[in-house]
Design a protein that fits this description.
The protein is mainly beta. It folds into two domains: 104 residues, Immunoglobulin-like (Sandwich), CATH 2.60.40.10; 54 residues, no CATH class. It has a four-stranded mixed beta sheet, with no helix packed on it. Strands 4, 9, 12 and 14 form a four-stranded mixed beta sheet that branches. The C terminus is likely disordered.
């Protein structure tokens, strides 16, 4: 008699009243979790909860390997762009998991640092003794999440958004 599964095989020959003991070991299972948001250049911790007989080893969907003797296993990742992680392979001390044994996902969203484009200095000039001169400053900013723009003039906040208009009252001395 021969019995085979994903964890190995057993072959025995029965003679008379002889019996054979067959041990069927379950495949390991793994569930990954740890959805989070990080800044570019930082790391995130993912958790893999496991069943079966340790030690375990395997790989994530990005090719990173993991191993450990106790469940859960914590894996540190440092993606440079937003990435979804799943378990790609998993083995324990006895068997190898199949795709249905590896579930869950962890989405690591990577926020980018803001970049700001500022205008050149603006100069208001006039030839009359008193007037109002309007100077417009426009700037832009990108990043994830989108950054807010705040303008300051002599330490006081005087505008927000992508444009600031300042009315200067000039008095000729």
């Amino acid at each position: 008699m021969s019995i085979t599964n994903g964890c190995g095989s057993v072959t025995t020959t029965a003679f008379g009243d002889a019996t054979a003991q067959i041990i069927v070991r379950p495949r390991p299972t793994g569930v990954i979790s740890g959805t989070t948001t990080i800044c570019n250049g930082s790391s995130a911790s993912l958790s893999i909860a496991l069943t079966g007989t340790g030690p375990w080893s395997g790989t994530l969907s990005n090719g990173s390997s993991f191993s450990g003797s106790t469940s859960p296993i914590t894996v540190s990742v440092s993606p440079t762009t937003s990435t979804t992680y799943t378990i790609a392979t998993l083995s324990d001390a006895n068997c190898t998991a199949i795709a249905a044994d590896m579930t869950g996902s962890a989405v690591v969203t990577v926020n980018t640092a803001p970049t700001i484009t500022c205008p050149a200095n603006q100069t208001a000039t006039t030839s009359s003794s008193t007037c109002i001169q309007v100077v417009t400053y426009s700037s832009s900013a990108t990043g994830s999440p989108a950054p807010a723009i705040t303008y300051e003039f002599t330490g006081a906040t005087i505008g927000t958004g992508s444009e600031m208009v300042v009315a200067l009252h000039l008095i000729k001395a």
